[in-house]
């Protein structure tokens, strides 16, 4: 605000510079410190380190997604109603940074000598605190922030691609090496807690970088700025109107189902990988080899993705990438793992990496496009509520994927305590 009582009108279509894009992309590292831990390490830790029944773990995680669905909507409403000097979404990154980091460590602090019931209650509380409360707040805030940094479509595509590059690098470490590092430190609960403390510190620093390095430019719904720089207050759009608008927006439903499908796949891959390597390939440390193949391919693909998206469009790139990933799955179904060997398995997961990275690299830009479509079609902007589509779809997909793995392993008589 200037001395004469006017507001400087932000350039909503400003092209973002590299430092701000890099700052925003740091949220992917913070996200990975929890998402990849939950998706690829936590189930293994509960069953093979602590000794909790597999079906109980899967049931708790699946049921918790019901609360997650509610929390997404609640968080979306809170963001829509936030009027802070620190911004609409950016402030939540700061407020939730410390709770989020502590929640990562809390996941691994299961009472080791307690009864199964006490352990189950602890898992339920810690899992919902980390996922339903902390993870929801951070993902919703950072997702909404990307939609408020600029309306420039190329910049939004760059944000989505670079966040995926940062995410792939950090997922490579967390998914591929956490169990290996823990085994090198003794393989017990204390080893996992020490590693989680490191991850928590990384997440905290990353979220602070997001907060201090990013800026909201897109004017909120509650006011506009006229040509003379005067602040013009508008009546807020009722929540009922925003919800009805979302229900009519077919792109909102497309993003919800697309994210659901993506995260079912990611959850199946991440949760299965540790068990597959330990019991089928007979070496749990093979996780690092296969993850290296997947994420090297994913990162290379992401660097090539930006010009491909500009030339062929996000949808066409996704179609081709999903076909490549499907071919990899077909190979794995038809060819025994003994015949594939390490090289063959690495090629299969590299094909999965193409599909994963392409969808990850374009999905959040599509969510931002959904906001712009609603604004153009109905005159209603709902950044927080719209982002709940990807957040809720992702969480529901993760829960379904984890439950499927738990059910299949339990039906086969798997007992982590005997592993």
Explain what you see.
The protein has 419 residues and is mostly helical. It contains 12 helices and 2 strands; from the N terminus they run ααααααββαααααα. The protein has a two-stranded antiparallel sheet. Strand 1 and strand 2 (231-233) form a beta hairpin. Helix 2 packs parallel to helix 4 (116-149), helix 3 runs antiparallel to helix 4 and helix 8 (250-280) runs parallel beside helix 12. The longest helix has 42 residues, at 337-378. 49% of the residues are buried.
SS elements, strand count: 2
Strand content: under 5%
Q: Strand order, biggest sheet?
A: 1-2
Radius of gyration: 22 Å
Low-confidence stretches: 1-8, 230-235
Shape: globular
Number of helices: 12
The biggest beta sheet reads: 2 strands, antiparallel
Percent in helix: over 70%
- Helix/sheet category: mainly alpha
Mean pLDDT: 85
Element-by-element helix/strand order: HHHHHHEEHHHHHH
Quote the distance from N terminus to C terminus: 64 Å
List the helices and strands and how they pair.
Layout: H1 18-50, H2 54-80, H3 90-106, H4 116-149, H5 153-184, H6 189-213, E1 223-225, E2 231-233, H7 239-248, H8 250-280, H9 286-312, H10 314-334, H11 337-378, H12 383-411
Antiparallel strand pairs: 1-2
Helix pairs in contact: 1-4, 1-5, 1-6, 1-8, 2-4, 2-12, 3-4, 3-6, 4-12, 5-9, 5-11, 8-11, 8-12, 9-10, 9-11, 10-11, 11-12
Question: In short, what is this structure?
Answer:
The protein is mainly α. The chain is 78% helix and 1% strand.
């Amino acid at each position: 605000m200037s001395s004469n009582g006017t507001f400087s009108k932000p350039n909503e279509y400003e092209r973002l510079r590299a430092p701000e894009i890099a700052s925003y992309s740091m949220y992917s590292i913070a996200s990975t410190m929890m998402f990849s831990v939950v998706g690829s390490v936590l189930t293994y830790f509960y069953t093979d380190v602590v000794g909790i029944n597999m079906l109980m773990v899967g049931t708790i995680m699946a049921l918790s997604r019901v609360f997650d669905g509610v929390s997404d909507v609640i968080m979306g409403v809170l963001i829509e109603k936030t009027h802070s000097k620190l911004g609409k979404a950016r402030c939540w990154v700061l407020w939730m940074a410390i709770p989020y980091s502590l929640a990562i460590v809390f996941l691994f602090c299961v009472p080791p000598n307690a009864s199964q019931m006490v352990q189950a209650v602890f898992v339920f509380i810690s899992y919902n605190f980390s996922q339903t409360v902390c993870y929801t707040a951070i993902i919703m805030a950072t997702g909404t922030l990307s939609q408020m940094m600029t309306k420039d479509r190329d910049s939004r595509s760059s944000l989505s691609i670079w966040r995926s590059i940062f995410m792939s690098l950090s997922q490579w470490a967390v998914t591929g090496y956490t169990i290996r590092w823990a085994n090198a430190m003794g393989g017990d609960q204390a080893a996992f807690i020490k590693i989680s403390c490191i991850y928590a510190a990384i997440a905290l620093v990353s979220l602070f970088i997001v907060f201090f390095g990013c800026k909201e430019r897109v004017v909120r719904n509650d006011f506009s700025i006229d040509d003379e720089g005067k602040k013009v207050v508008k009546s807020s759009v009722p929540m009922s109107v925003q919800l009805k608008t979302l229900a009519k927006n077919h792109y909102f439903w497309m993003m919800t189902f697309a994210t659901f499908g993506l995260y079912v796949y990611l959850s199946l891959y991440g949760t299965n990988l540790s068990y597959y390597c330990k019991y089928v390939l007979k070496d749990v440390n093979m996780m690092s080899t296969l993850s290296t193949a997947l994420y090297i391919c994913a990162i290379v693909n992401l660097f090539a993705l930006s010009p491909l998206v500009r030339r062929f469009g996000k949808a066409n790139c996704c179609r081709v990438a999903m076909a490549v990933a499907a071919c990899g799955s077909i190979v794995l179904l038809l060819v025994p793992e003994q015949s594939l060997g390490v090289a063959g398995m690495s090629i299969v997961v590299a094909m999965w990496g193409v599909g994963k990275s392409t969808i990850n690299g374009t999905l959040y830009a599509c969510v931002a496009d959904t906001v712009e479509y609603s604004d153009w079609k109905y005159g209603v902007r709902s950044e927080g509520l719209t982002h709940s589509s990807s957040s809720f779809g992702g969480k529901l997909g993760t829960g379904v994927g984890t439950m499927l793995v738990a059910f299949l392993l339990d039906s086969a008589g798997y007992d982590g305590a005997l592993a």
